[in-house]
Amino acid sequence: VSAAGAEPAAAGVSELRPAQRRRRAEVLRVAAELFAENGYETTSTTDLAERLGIKGGSVYYYIDSKEELLFELVQDIYGLLLESLQEVLDSDADPLAKLRQLIELHVSGMARHRHRGALILNETRSLSAEHRAVTAVQAAAYEEGLASVIAAGQELGQIDPDIDPKLVTKALLGAGNWVNRWYREGGAWSPQDVSRDFARIFLDGLARSKT
Amino acid sequence: VSAAGAEPAAAGVSELRPAQRRRRAEVLRVAAELFAENGYETTSTTDLAERLGIKGGSVYYYIDSKEELLFELVQDIYGLLLESLQEVLDSDADPLAKLRQLIELHVSGMARHRHRGALILNETRSLSAEHRAVTAVQAAAYEEGLASVIAAGQELGQIDPDIDPKLVTKALLGAGNWVNRWYREGGAWSPQDVSRDFARIFLDGLARSKT
To answer: Which residues touch A40 (CB under 8 Å, ≥6 apart)?
Structure first.
């Protein structure tokens, strides 16, 4: 895997020289930005090259296709999500504390990383069927991880046993994902404000006494 | 406003004869279906005519433009949402009971009327700036109505006073709107199951004891 010699178009990442790797990371970053701002479908590789300040064709030196770019971005994001989920699952905290952490992570992540959040929420339908199948498995793994913490809390008597953990997960993800749509930096709330209050709403409920 | 005589293209609704009004309602219903299934941008008036079984150009007998069609659909939906909100606000129930009703209405509505929900959640960005401004006012009115019930519950000591009513509203709408994305008829849960459990999660919280 020597870096010397002529580089084939769309070389594997491992074959790229450091400067090229940095450039490739920059391509990914800018692509995420454009896809999130204008939508994947309406963004062309020409738009991408323009914002990067390079010639249209040279984009293909770093990527195989626009779809491949989207897939790699989505993979990266799911990788990070599943990694932070696993870290919480592996910790010594009790299920309720784990649930609070997971709510806070998801909500603050959606507020902080708006472009990346928008990609996995809105653009995965543009992936090839094969790639969509891969991300569907990752999305399901994330939901199952959350549901498993809720089920563990129910078994321990910490969490209301009368609600399906899968339905709780849907409610949590909905509230968290919606943050990606409405949250604006520099507004009334910091990402911490939102994540702390959302955790409080879900764990303690709104009513002062049980209804 | 006689219905006799030659009809101008895109006659006002009040000028249409009963059979034409029925046809127009059918055009709206089918448009909602197509926009929700394939997206507004990728649906053409030719697609619409095809599904209706009429000639391409005759669609313009019932509508001025595709955008006008989307606007009318979105207006209808916001009209219904604001009407049911107002009904609850005007009732004699206490704030907590009103909040429960509003959560249930929103959640079950998003499960039951998937096409209509998808339109106001995903397609309003395709409206003209002028029309978008109108729907933004309606969306804000809906959010403010919900927040006002929460604030009233806080004043009465029924609802946790330490969370911003606007932030609670964002959490509620997020969980409710997300239902439109994942809910499938004939699955594990009825619309009632989802709306009842979501209301329970939000009002009573997940933790068995206050955290």
So the answer is: A66, A70, A119, A123, A126
Residue A125: CB atoms within 10 Å: 9
Return mean pLDDT, chain A. 90
CB-nearest to B203 from A150, A203, A206 is A206
Sign of the C-alpha dihedral computed for residues A73, A75, A76 and A80 taken in this order: positive
Residue A24 structure tokens: 């490739």
Q: What angle do CA B57, B59, B65 make, to 5 degrees?
A: 100
Residue given tokens 């997940």 in the structure block: B206
Looking at the predicted structure, is the pLDDT value of residue A7 above 70? no
Q: Is A73 a residue whose pLDDT tops 90? A: yes
In this prediction the ipTM stands at 0.86
Find which of A40, A206, A209 to mutate to test the B interface (most B CBs within 10 Å of its CB).
A206
In tens, the pLDDT along A39-58 reads 898 899 999 999 999 988 88
Measured between its terminal Cα atoms, the distance across chain A in Å is 65
How many residues make up chain A in this entry?
A: 211
Interface touch B178/A157, C-beta < 8 Å: no
Q: Which of B206, B209, B211 to mutate to test the interface with A (most CBs of A within 10 A)?
A: B206
Count of helices and strands (H, E) across chain B: 8, 0
- Number of residues written out for chain B: 211
Alpha-carbon torsion B135, B140, B146, B149, what sign?
negative
By the CB < 8 Å criterion, does A139 face chain B?
Answer: no
DSSP A7: P
User: Is A194 an 8 Å CB contact of chain B?
Assistant: yes
The two tokens of residue B155 are 């004043």
Check residue B41 and report its DSSP letter: T
* pLDDT bracket for residue A10 (50, 70, 90): low
The gap from C-alpha A99 to its chain's centroid, in whole angstroms, comes to: 18
Partner residues linked to A159 by β-bridges: B207
> Contact B168/A206, CB-based, under 8 Å?
yes
Cβ within 8 Å, pair A202-B197: no
Cα of B156 to nearest chain A Cα, Å: 10
At A170 the three-state DSSP class reads: helix
Helix (H, G, I), strand (E, B) or coil at A207: strand
* pLDDT tens for each residue of B42-93: 899 999 999 999 988 888 888 889 999 999 999 999 999 999 999 999 999 9
Say if A203 is an interface residue toward chain B (CB within 8 Å). Answer: yes
Q: CA nearest A198 in B: which residue?
A: B171
pLDDT band at B146 (very low <50, low <70, confident <90, very high): very high
